[in-house]
Amino acid sequence: MRVILAEDSTLLREGLIRLLAEEGHDVVAAVGTAPELLKATEEHRPDIVVTDVRMPPDHKDDGMRAALTIRRKWPDVSVLVLSQYVENRYATELITSTDGKVGYLLKDRVAQVDEFLEALDRVAAGGAAFDPEVVRRLLTRTTHVDPLETLTRREKDVLELMAQGLTNARISEQLHISQSAAEKHINAIFDKLGLTGSSGLSRRVMAVVRYLGS
């Protein structure tokens, strides 16, 4: 796939370039600032952008704001955000900004090369990938949401894995249940949250949005 990297740490940026090249991906641009990221995305229209949250010029949330801009202006471009910390507001906004093609991983996850590459492939293919720690932090804020009180513990476990972007098959593997059981839990979640009459992908996203209390 064609990839743009945005990371102001030269060491990490060069390491990611090398890793992706070894996997057969084409890094069409590697930049160190948010404005350069937007310019490169407009020029190259890659399959996916991998960006840090904190980047120049302000060294605050420039990378995340650039990621949200990319999702609005070029919806065909997938975005995978890397961060050293969980930024609740922006993480929630990223999750709710689209029906897919987004991911949010903590940088520690990059050290788990197989997990990072799997997340990259999943997001580029139109899915979602959210770090389990990101999901847990966001879910901590949403226990007051009334409709969620009707969910069983197992249904909440399933919904948490849905928020990470896992497919039904992967959910069944993680929870050691059959795929049909996972599908029943997901349908029960949709019913309890009043999500009917929408496509499967839209309902999954809407369920996650409700769970994150956006």
Describe this protein's structure:
This protein has 214 residues and is α/β, with parallel strands linked by helices. Helix content is 52%, strand content 14%. It is built from ten helices and six strands. It has a six-stranded parallel β-sheet, sandwiched between helices. Helix 8 packs across helix 9. It is globular and about 45 Å long. The two termini are 32 Å apart. The mean pLDDT is 85. This is Response regulator transcription factor. Keywords: DNA-binding, Phosphoprotein, Transcription, Transcription regulation. It holds the Pfam family GerE. InterPro entries: CheY-like_superfamily, NreC/VraR/RcsB-like_REC, Sig_transdc_resp-reg_receiver, Tscrpt_reg_LuxR_C, WalR-like.
Q: Uncertain runs with pLDDT below 50, 5 residues or more? A: none
What characteristic shape results from the CA principal axes?
Answer: globular
Helix fraction bin: 40-55%
**N-C termini distance:** 32 Å
Counting DSSP E segments of at least 2 residues, the number of strands comes to 6
| Order of strands across the main sheet | 2-1-3-4-5-6
Whole-number average pLDDT? 85
Global Rg: 17 Å
Give the helix tally. 10
> What is the succession of H and E elements?
EHEHEHEHEHEHHHHH
How large a portion of the residues is in β-strands, by DSSP E? Answer: 5-15%
- Oligomer description: single chain
Q: Largest sheet at a glance?
A: 6 strands, parallel
Which structural category fits the helices and strands? Answer: alpha/beta
